From TrEMBL:
Name under which the protein is recorded: Anaphase-promoting complex subunit 4
Domain Anaphase-promoting complex subunit 4-like WD40: 27-120
SUPFAM superfamilies: WD40 repeat-like
GO cellular component: anaphase-promoting complex; nuclear periphery
Keyword line: Cell cycle, Cell division, Mitosis, Ubl conjugation pathway
Gene: ANAPC4
Record-annotated Anaphase-promoting complex subunit 4 long domain positions: 268-467
GO biological process, one term: protein K11-linked ubiquitination
Pfam families on file: ANAPC4 (PF12896), ANAPC4_WD40 (PF12894)
Species assigned in the record: Ceratocystis fimbriata CBS 114723
């Protein structure tokens, strides 16, 4: 950076309460920042001038746990938030709700997520696509590569031609985090975006550093791979991940661990993700389809909970009225005690039992009858809408994705590193087919019950009117003429005491052991054939058959779908896990406790990398120790590192913070300690003198004059960003947090005129 620079105040934000350690977290593509509220349980996102954009909570119905780490996605699309419950939630700024949940730690785990890293890595063309590879060699501009028909077919998306899934009703259904996620149109559009072929050549990598020293890896925002211990086989908690460096063109990332037994040593470890380099399938496409599959599962589960709510709405008041008339009939010692027989007899003969008359006039009345009709008809219409407009379209969309995955599984069937299995995908298709069968049965029962109840309600209304107005007993009204008595009788026999819908709307996930009922099919039989046979025996007596019918519950089938999807995800994750390894360690013996650090990875033609690391210690805050570590990477595997060091003294100045701006510039925030204002020093890496012997010799280099800060502003922390045009035109930024951790100032770093 030979051109002289200046700082210009770009924006300023004041927070409601002091930012905790490691906060605020700055969006790399927008001028917004995230911090925590006073409780430490909620994330607040601010625009400049202190305007709050949104408040992100763990869940609407949770007491909430403490936030342990955050990280913005490199393109600024999400902010990942880790809470103490061991889940990383990828929060959407537009809805303030979770778009994806990554279960990093098992439930009830005593460990927590302490560090998050999020990076984007380009997928190597390798030998997977010869046409594209030749085009890239012919013309270095990737945008001008020749048209590739197999590639175009692979990334052809049908989602854009399908009707959009509808947002679920805002009425409450369940107490889970998803209860409000799918209720907004903007949120639905954001969650179910079709795969963009432009994203096919890159993959998103998220690393979570755990308190027990493990590193959890997930790809493309929602596909967990596994947790890895460093060093393999070491005692848990002996190392902790504290920093990370990567480059978009390099599949090997650099991890920095703190040695908990020796607080003066930092270990830099290459993290080789060979599966990115070697996978024969496009991981971005695969992860996108699996992610959408899982989101559809969440949507379907939430829809079934809404169906359960509507069923309860339709039957609760109905059951109370029915119990009331049963009690009245029981009091009649000479009359008919069975409610179905009593209603059936009354419909056929017009002769209403005395106790039923009293119940209709005294207990039910016109007002009660209207309440009954409103609850029953409203609930049944709600079920019809949920099944027709929400459940069935989501299941049909899942079938399309599964057919795509089955095609990929068949194409890559002989390749062990993909992890897709044709039988597992076929099992998933079978479960979805069973869900479609049950959904259509619910639809048929609901339509029939709604039509029959409407006639039953008309009949009972006419009967009540005649009882309340005896003078009109012999008159035939227009409403009475419209009654279809066969539907009234059908309702009394089939639906009055128990609705057939009841046998399907149970939302309990069920026992995994019952999955075998559908899986133990004979040769030539599909799951849907087995389920059809079970449903045809519904009226047959026997406990065994009653137990088998549990597989027709929506809850059990959705639970079985969840378990089947998890098996597919686990299989894919296991295949990728085999392509992950730790490289050789570089020990950084500081001789003192670490104070500040930052790192930057620089690529060399995809075949190697150089990682620059800058560190300061607590007792030598005027010195910056630099490490320059070179790696050669072959087929995704890193070589033995070669390390050089350099030490730069800024005495008497004290290093408050330091960050790499680009591949060749480190910005150091310095307190001159001479009553002068704090300043930004621009340090060029090319000017440093590198020593391969790891000695502590101090370099003496010419440093450009520092950039002074306002005298009335005392900073405590710094973040820096290169210029960005991803979402908005942003200049190179230097962001500073005040000493009281309440004021956040952003300066534009610009060339002097």
């Amino acid at each position: 950076m030979s051109v002289s620079q200046k700082l210009r105040l770009y924006s300023e934000t004041t927070y409601e309460c002091p930012s905790p350690r490691d906060f605020p977290s700055i969006c790399p593509t927008l001028d917004i920042s995230a911090t925590l509220d006073g409780s430490g349980k909620n994330v607040l996102v601010y625009r400049p001038n202190g305007e709050q954009v949104c408040k992100m909570q763990q869940g609407a119905r949770f007491g909430g746990s403490t936030v342990t780490a955050t990280r913005w996605k490199p393109n600024g699309q999400f902010i990942a938030v880790a809470w103490e419950d061991g889940i990383v939630r990828l929060m959407n700024l537009e809805t303030s709700k979770s778009a994806h949940n990554i279960q990093v730690l098992p439930k009830d785990s005593k460990e927590e997520i302490q560090y998050l890293a999020w990076a984007t890595t380009r997928i190597s063309l390798g030998d997977k696509d010869e046409n594209t590879k030749k085009a890239v060699h012919k013309d270095s501009s990737a945008e001008e590569t020749i048209a590739n028909l197999p590639r175009q077919i692979m990334f052809l998306e049908t989602d854009i031609s399908l009707p959009k899934l509808s947002p679920l009703p805002t009425t409450s259904a369940g107490s889970g985090e998803d209860s409000l996620v799918f209720t907004l149109r903007s949120g639905m559009d954001f969650m179910f975006q079709p795969f963009d072929p432009q994203d096919a050549d890159s993959i998103s990598i998220m690393l979570s550093g755990l308190s027990d020293g493990k590193v959890h890896l997930s790809i493309n925002d929602s596909l967990p791979i596994s947790s890895f211990s460093y060093p393999p086989g070491s005692a848990l908690g002996s190392r902790q991940l504290i920093h990370h460096a990567s480059h978009p063109l390099i599949t090997t990332h650099t991890l920095f661990f703190k040695n908990c037994d020796d607080g003066t040593t930092i270990e830099m470890v290459p993290f080789d993700m060979q599966f990115i380099e070697s996978s024969s399938i496009n991981l971005s496409l695969l992860a996108s389809k699996l992610t959408t599959l899982h989101k559809l599962l969440r949507y379907i589960r939430q829809t079934t909970l809404h169906i359960q709510v509507e069923y309860s709405n339709a039957r609760d008041l109905h059951t109370r009225f029915l119990n009331s008339v049963k009690q009245s009939l029981q009091e009649d010692k000479r009359g008919q005690h069975d409610v179905v027989t009593a209603f059936y007899h009354a419909t056929l003969t017009g002769n209403i039992p005395r106790k039923m008359k009293e119940w209709l006039v005294d207990s039910m009345g016109d007002r009660g009858l209207k309440r009954w009709a409103k609850a029953a008809i409203g609930g049944l219409k709600g079920i019809r809408t949920l099944v027709q407009q929400y459940l069935i379209p989501a299941l049909e969309r899942m079938v399309i994705i599964l057919s795509r995955l089955k095609g990929l599984a068949q194409f890559y069937n002989d390749n062990d590193d993909v992890g897709l299995s044709v039988p597992e995908i076929e099992n998933l298709v079978g479960v979805v087919s069973c869900l479609l069968l049950v959904a259509n049965r619910i639809m048929i029962f609901t339509m029939e019950e709604l039509a029959c109840f409407t006639m039953f309600n008309t009949w009972i209304t006419v009967t009540l009117d005649k009882l309340l107005s005896p003078s009109t007993t012999n008159e035939v009204t227009e409403k009475e003429v419209s009654i279809q008595y066969q539907k009234v009788l059908l309702y009394i026999v089939e639906y009055l005491e128990e609705s057939p819908i009841k046998h399907h709307v149970n939302t309990d996930a069920g026992d995994e052991a019952f999955d075998d009922i559908l899986l133990r099919r004979s040769s030539g039989q599909s799951m849907i054939d087995v389920l059809t046979n079970i449903l045809e025996q519904e009226k047959a007596p026997g406990d065994a058959i009653a137990e088998d019918r549990k597989v027709a519950h929506l809850g059990h089938l959705v639970g079985m779908l969840d378990r089947s999807i998890r098996r597919v995800l686990d299989s894919v994750a296991a295949a990728q896990e085999r392509g992950v390894r730790f490289g050789e360690t570089v020990r950084m013996d500081l001789g003192d406790t670490l104070s500040k650090m930052d790192s930057r990875m620089v690529a060399h033609d995809r075949k190697g990398s150089i990682t620059y690391t800058a560190l300061t210690t607590k007792n030598d805050t005027h010195k910056i120790i630099f490490y320059r570590t070179s790696l050669t990477i072959t087929n995704g595997i890193s070589s033995t590192p070669e390390t050089q060091t350099s030490t730069l003294s800024l005495d008497p100045g004290r290093v408050i913070d330091m960050k790499f701006l680009n591949d060749n510039v480190l910005l150091a925030l310095i307190d001159p300690q001479n009553n002068a204002p704090c300043a930004i020093y621009i340090i060029t890496l090319d000017a440093l003198v590198w020593d391969p012997s790891s000695s502590s010799n101090t370099s003496h280099i010419d440093i450009p004059p520092p950039l002074p800060l306002p005298a009335d502003f005392v900073p405590a922390a710094m973040e820096v960003f290169e210029a960005s045009s991803v979402r908005n035109q942003l200049p190179a930024r230097v962001c500073l947090l005040s000493e009281n951790r309440v004021t956040w100032k952003t300066f534009a770093l610009e060339p002097t005129a």
